[in-house]
Every structure is written in structure tokens, then in C-alpha cells.
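It would be a great kindness if you could assist me with a short task in structural biology. Thank you for your consideration; the sequence and its C-alpha cells are set out here.
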Amino acid sequence: MINQHCVLCGDARAREGLCADCRAMLPRMPDERCPRCAEPTIGGAVCGHCQRHPPAFDALHAPYLFGYPLNGLIHAYKYGRRLQLAGALCGLLTEFARCQAPKYDFVIPVPLANERLAERGFNQSSELAKAFADTINSRFSDNLCWRKCNTLPQASLGRAERLRNVRHAFGVKHRCDGLSIAIVDDVATSGATLSALSKMMKKQGAKRVDAWVLARAFSPKT
């Protein structure tokens, strides 16, 4: 593997765009967390919200918390069009996937609305999903589902508003009978987007739908 300069400190001895010291600074998820939504819980028990209102996805997997310095890298990649960061960010997700990802029939990115795709110029989740699929030897598809409308940015909304915002946001083009599917995104907060897409997949017959994200953020429980 060709060494790259670290995207954080510039050290020339970096592996996949991050040196060992900067990699060690990344905010890892706690070991004890809800097996459904990855919310930190005592003893890894299912959290209260998932007991009361379980999401449509079967499990959410995330290696890192959405905190410094990873949040800055994701923001620069996603909104600053610093596409050179894709290698480092994909490397973090695939390193995690190599350790524990099961086999899936399809790996798909969370789709963007046409307006958002034109504005941003690319779908940041597609690059992550491609690298993830390649790592676990699964099929990648970016046309199995689509986003019906350009919803409000989830970051500006509370939990209840997030759920309403994406309730009817997605469509699925084909039946998914008996399939196991991995949905890939960059960041999960409430999980509303991932759950809404998972629900549509299961309506089309998917047997299992897991969500994989690079970072997990946490929003107020309102």
C-alpha cells in the first residue's frame, strides 16, 4: 500500500491517509451500546427508545462517535467538496467492516434527492458504500432505491420532526424478497433516515436490513 500524507497533521508516514497518532485520536464508540441503534447503554442492553419504538433496521453499526477531529473531516468532505478525503474516510469504515461485517446480498448508499445531488456534485455515501461492498465481497447498487423529494436537512430538526420529514421520502424500484441488505451512510443521529429507507426495503420483501455508518451522533430525545 502506498503511504499518503496524513490528512490531519501532514505526517508522511500515514496509512490510508491517517497516521497512527491521529488515528488514535479518533473518538471510538463505547463497547457497551444498544444492539439495535448503537446508543450507549449499561451492559449493552437494548435502549428504552428501541424497546418502545424499534427502528425498521435490524442493527446499526458504527465504529466512531461524531466528534473531534472526525466530524471536521466528514464536514469538509461532504460540504467542502474535499474529495481527496474519501480515501481516508472509506478506509476507516472498511477497516471496521473487515472485522465484523456479515455477507449481504446488496450494499446500497442512502440516496440523495436530485436537487441535493446537483448542489453537492456527488453523493458522499456512495463512495463509502462502494468501498464497503468491495471489502466484504458483496454487490453494490446505487439504483435499487431513490429519494422521492428534497426533504429538509435533518440536522436542523428534533427527533419527532426528523421522523416526519423522511416518512415518505424513499421509493424502492424492485422486489427484495428474502434479501439481506446493508444501507451505508456517513453519519447517523436519530436513525430516522435509515429507518425510513429500511422500512421501504422490508415492504418490498427484504429479510434483513442493517445500517452501517462511519460515525454516530446523538440528538435530544425529543
About this structure: The radius of gyration is 17 Å. The mean pLDDT is 88. Strands lie at 59-61, 64-65, 106-109, 139-140, 145-147, 170-172, 180-188, 208-216.
